[in-house]
């Protein structure tokens, strides 16, 4: 975003969560939430407030502060508390012009419902999977919504609104250790704390790959039988031949050569 597109009077709230690395499982900044912070910094660096509901001692939150933030506000609540009531109560008091979230969290329920629930609570329109805020004029925002295969849809939305940020948005800047360690982590108890009874009853475990069903095909020609007999097994599926002597390699080769006219 160019400096002349920044709006000094714009107030943006970027909601962040603790992410989880898909390989190691370690806590980190969530990729989509970091893009939401980057979008807020590009549009209104002075009017951006980064907000988290949860544990104020989570070290992963420092990765957001390392993007150049002086302060990160945390609504302190328990691990099994629902974040929506606390966030909606706070946002209804502060009344930001734009609320940015990721499409879905990398841990917890990861339902992707945060933007919709907040929009319902706050009475704001919801725009999903935005890639860029192009400009803001006359109380309306010009947005680009990410579509499949790199396509974009131009939208015009009145302020205030809630938007989820897609992975197609600008790549977030690298987190620096110095600013991250110097940033103020301002924690306050959430005004509303509602226990998420459904989530509290869940138990989490690493997902296991399920075995895939083998395709059943009928070999009509000798070439098909030869191809099936010589095919290497792969993890993405396989084929089973029925009613044909596919297991007899010599017979398959002989039939193929006979069909191709190599032998007579």
UniProtKB/TrEMBL annotation:
Coiled coil: none annotated. Residues 33-197 form the Electron transfer flavoprotein alpha/beta-subunit N-terminal domain. One of its GO terms (molecular function) is electron transfer activity. It comes from Marinobacterium lutimaris. The keyword Electron transport applies. Belongs to the ETF beta-subunit/FixA family. Keywords: Electron transport, Transport. This is Electron transfer flavoprotein beta subunit. InterPro entries: ETF_a/b_N, ETF_b, Rossmann-like_a/b/a_fold.
């Amino acid at each position: 975003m160019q400096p002349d597109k920044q709006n000094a009077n714009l107030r943006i709230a970027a909601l962040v969560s603790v992410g989880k690395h898909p390989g190691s499982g370690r806590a980190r900044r969530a990729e989509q939430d970091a893009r939401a912070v980057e979008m807020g910094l590009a549009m209104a660096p002075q009017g951006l407030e980064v907000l988290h509901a949860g544990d104020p001692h989570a070290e992963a939150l420092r990765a957001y502060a390392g993007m150049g933030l002086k302060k990160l506000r945390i609504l302190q609540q328990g691990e099994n508390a629902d974040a929506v009531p606390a966030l909606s109560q706070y946002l209804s008091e502060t009344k930001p012009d734009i609320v940015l979230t990721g499409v879905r969290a990398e841990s917890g329920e990861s339902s992707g419902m945060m933007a919709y629930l907040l929009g319902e609570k706050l009475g704001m329109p919801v725009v999903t999977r935005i890639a860029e805020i192009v400009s803001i004029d006359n109380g309306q925002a010009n947005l680009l919504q990410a579509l499949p295969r790199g396509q974009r849809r131009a939208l015009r939305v009145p302020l205030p609104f809630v938007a989820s940020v897609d992975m197609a948005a600008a790549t977030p800047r690298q987190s620096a250790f110095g600013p991250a360690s110097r940033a103020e982590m301002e924690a306050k108890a959430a005004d509303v704390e509602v226990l998420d009874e459904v989530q509290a009853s869940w138990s989490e475990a690493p997902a296991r790959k399920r075995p895939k069903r083998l395709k059943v095909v009928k070999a009509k020609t000798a070439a098909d039988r030869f191809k099936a007999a010589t095919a290497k097994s792969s993890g993405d599926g396989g084929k089973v031949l029925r009613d044909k002597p596919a297991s007899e390699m010599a017979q398959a080769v002989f039939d193929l050569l006979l069909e191709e006219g190599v032998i007579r």
